[in-house]
Amino acid sequence: MTEAVITLGDQIAISLRLPNQASSMFVELATVRWGKEQTYGVEFEDLSPIADIRLQKYMNRLSKSAPTPAA
Length: 71
Fold this sequence. Notes:
The protein has 71 residues and is of the alpha+beta class. It has one helix at 49-65; strands at residues 11-16, 25-36, 39-46.
């Protein structure tokens, strides 16, 4: 959480912690694409190879645990 004023298009560095992971992940460059109150969507512009792998593994786990849509 930040008290800084963040606007669309801002380029920021962020540290985030994915669920069930011991250490934080650092993103050196992310661009703010949308925002509402204190919630923001960002596009990762500069992600280390290790952070990229961690994020891919997390997203794969999420997609496997998501409920299958009814036909």
